[in-house]
Design a protein that fits this description.
Layout (H helix, E strand, L loop, with lengths): L5 H8 L3 H20 L3 E10 L5 E12 L3 E3 L1 H10 L3 H21 L5 E5 L10 H12 L6 E6 H6 L1 H13 L3 E7 L6 H6 L4 E4 L1 H6 L4 H16 L3 E4 L5 H10 L3 E2 L10 H9 L2 E3 L4 E3 L5
Parallel strand pairs: 2-4, 4-5, 5-6, 6-7, 7-8, 8-9
Antiparallel strand pairs: 1-2, 1-9, 2-3, 10-11
Helix pairs in contact: 4-5, 5-7
Bound molecules: ligand C2E and magnesium ion (MG) (3 copies).
């Protein structure tokens, strides 16, 4: 830190619009190479059944360790990659990495599903379901062990175009989840018409439910609505025991959040799973003797 007048110091640490633009530009031009060089990886965040702690699946969350910028969050680079028309590449990479992981679990006798986040651009690609089907086949993973997550606003942006693609994906036996539920239009009437299997309550409501009666009411009504539509209800952002207990009392089906685990790199996830109850093929049992 240079000893200059404080006004100048602060200024030098706030990136200008030009710098932000340049950084985004660099990121999108380097993205393909970054995948080839292993800078882009997939972390996995466990999801557990309520009540209890049985591990049902994991969510695949992309990470980029950039040689110059350090760790770049998906909230920054995914929109840049989408805008550059490279999201097909991102989704294929994450999907293949995740299905390869599920395949090796199956080989070890473990039945763990994986959820992959889609971009709205995937829903505009008529070839997308075919590519997903090919990937499932290549890795020998049944569709029911794959969940695809979409936000409400992604689907609502162009429902006429998204709907046939969602139907095709659903016909592959894939589970479809509406992510960040409650933050968008909440077109409840529309949700009923979509071939959706799960709703994920947005973490902002889950964070607030211990202290804010409004958030608690939103969470409760999503659980009730989801169940009345025959959907599995997942809560994300479960950070505290209180939230977990409240969700369990409401009958929420699945919990995901830092209380259970942060997203983990593959090797750390393996160690985490060793100590947990996992669905094994054919029956339920401990994955190991440890607790
Ligand atoms: P999302 O799909 O809603 O994922 C959940 C986000 O919440 C993740 O952030 C996760 O790390 C974070 N999270 C989970 N539990 C907790 C908790 O208890 N407390 C807090 N504070 N945060 C929690 P992450 O990994 O930074 O991802 C952000 C978003 O980026 C994702 O939101 C998703 O929309 C997008 N994203 C991530 N990976 C991919 C990908 O492979 N493809 C696409 N298209 N988007 C992705
Ligand atoms: Mg998600
Ligand atoms: Mg979410
Ligand atoms: Mg999101």
């Amino acid at each position: 830190v240079r000893a200059t007048r404080s006004g100048e110091e602060v200024k030098s640490y706030v990136p200008s619009m030009g710098q932000i633009f340049l950084r985004r530009f660099q990121m999108v031009t380097q993205f393909r190479q970054a995948i080839d060089e292993g800078q882009v990886t997939v972390h996995y965040q466990p999801k557990v059944a309520l009540p209890g702690k049985q591990v049902l699946g994991v969510e695949a969350l992309v990470r980029w360790q950039h040689p110059e910028f350090g760790r770049v969050d998906p909230d920054e680079f995914v929109p840049a990659v989408e805008a550059a028309g490279l999201v097909g590449l991102l989704t294929s990479f994450v999907l293949d990495t995740a299905l390869d992981r599920v395949r090796r679990w199956l080989d070890d006798g473990l039945r763990i599903s994986v959820a992959v986040n889609l971009s709205v651009r995937n829903l505009a690609d008529a070839e997308f379901p075919t590519r997903v089907a090919e990937s499932l086949e290549r890795f020998g993973v049944p569709g029911e062990l794959l969940t695809l997550e979409l936000t409400e606003s992604d689907v609502m942006q162009d429902p006429g175009r998204a709907l046939p693609i969602l139907r095709e994906l659903s016909d592959l036996g894939i589970e479809l989840a509406v992510d960040d539920f409650g933050t968008g239009y909440s077109s409840l009437a529309y949700l009923r018409q979509l071939p959706v299997d799960q709703v994920k309550i947005d973490k902002s409501f889950v964070f607030g439910m211990g202290t804010d009666l409004g958030d608690l009411a939103v969470v409760r009504s999503i659980v009730e609505l989801g169940h009345s539509l025959g959907l599995t209800v997942v809560a994300e952002g479960v950070e505290e025991d209180l939230a977990r207990d409240q969700l369990e009392a409401m009958g929420c089906d699945v919990a995901q959040g830092y209380l259970i685990s942060r997203p983990l790199a593959e090797d750390r996830l393996e160690a985490w799973l060793q100590a947990r109850t996992v669905r094994s093929l054919g029956r339920t049992s401990e994955s190991s003797g440890a607790v």
